[in-house]
Amino acid sequence: MTTPLPAALLWDFDGTTVDSEGSWERAEMRWLAHLGGPRPGVAMEREPGASLDGTIDWIHEAAGVPVTDRAAVRRALCELAIEEYRADGPVVLPGVRELMTQAELAGVPNLLVSANETWLLRRVISGWQRQPYLHLVGEDMVEHSKPAPDLYLEAARLLGVDPARCIAFEDSRTGATAAVAAGCFTVGVTGQETAAVEGVAMRVDGLSGVGLDEVVARWRAWSAVS
């Protein structure tokens, strides 16, 4: 009997695949400065993994400025983020490329599942020498972004598989909540943010040295009792 493999590896982008949280933070602060800066006494607490609309609402609330043209603000903030991404040259986090390559060699596709918009993702990864993703799934493709399960359900739909056959990698509470709710085997990367999410099946401090065989073995054990 052939040993079963997962249908796909589903990758969050910011903070899981690339070290880019700083790029977003600077883009957000630039937009906040454009609005005149925060109101006095406003607590500046940023939620990692928040949706684009959630981020916009947070910035505008901090500035005390209503959102009058959400589409224009979304575009402007994304353009700032792209500038920051390119200035940084987003660094792929240790172990990610190796795990993606192992999956490809085993015939398991990699999909990017992100709360960013798809056009932004395409532009950011356009400079990569090699494109590892079968599909890009961005928040503009679904009704609700993370922490709702829609993005992961859409990824499974594109593949025509049960989400339980997919392994999702997430570094934020928001993202891990989405992946678990969709029914994916969820790997919490770096642990701290995902530790409070019930249903995360595997936790690692990082992906350096984490091999496909190890992750798949844990997925098989989880599948057997789920």
From TrEMBL:
Entry GO MF terms: sugar-phosphatase activity
Domain of life, per lineage: Bacteria
Keyword S-adenosyl-L-methionine: no
Pfam families linked to this entry: Hydrolase
Alphabetically ordered keywords of this record: Hydrolase
NCBIfam families for the chain: HAD-SF-IA-v3
The protein's name: HAD-superfamily hydrolase, subfamily IA, variant 3
Organism expressing this protein natively: Luteococcus japonicus LSP_Lj1
